[in-house]
Design a protein that fits this description.
By secondary structure, the chain is α+β, with helices and mostly antiparallel strands. The chain is built from four helices and 13 strands.
Amino acid sequence: MRRYAYRILNVFAETALTGNPLCVFENAEGLSDFEMQALALQFNLSETTFILPSAVATAHVRIFTPSFEMPFAGHPTLGTAHVVRELRGAGDTLTLDMKAGVIPVTSSGSIWTLEARKPTTRAAAAAHDIADMLGLSPSDLGSPPLWVDTGSEQLIVPLARLRRSSAARPTRVCSRVMAAALRGKAWLTCGPTRPRTRWSHASFF
């Protein structure tokens, strides 16, 4: 029987058993894509990561949700960096080779920070289609919605008035519009927005 060591971490945690849970497999060599996906489903956490050797970075990391592989995500990257530093003796500056590219991660004491790749954007569906999928009217939207990609593409929908966010009710149209997105989420915003490219955390449990 093959044995693989793993750790359960809580990222962004202030106390034990809080924050974002994460499962990290310390050495995933020998695991197939199917097995990684099956393990992620078995643990059923939002993400499970698998550490592998890399010729271009401190470690190669793959991220799986219970149903699909993600090219990049914030809290799995930070949590896995914490484990890689301990396993590889990498110090406070390391790089993780992911499907989204090589991500630099640094620490200062217990605080880790990553720098995602520069965002790219593309136009979303017509405003009236976006409004329809959210159960809103076109007048509820602010500037045009955009797909924003810093390693994991997500739909950003600016609203004209913040209070209209509570009126949003996803409709059946939503599944068709979001079909191409791995995460399948739309983020409602109000006011000036910038794609987030930096994440930090202060503690692990």
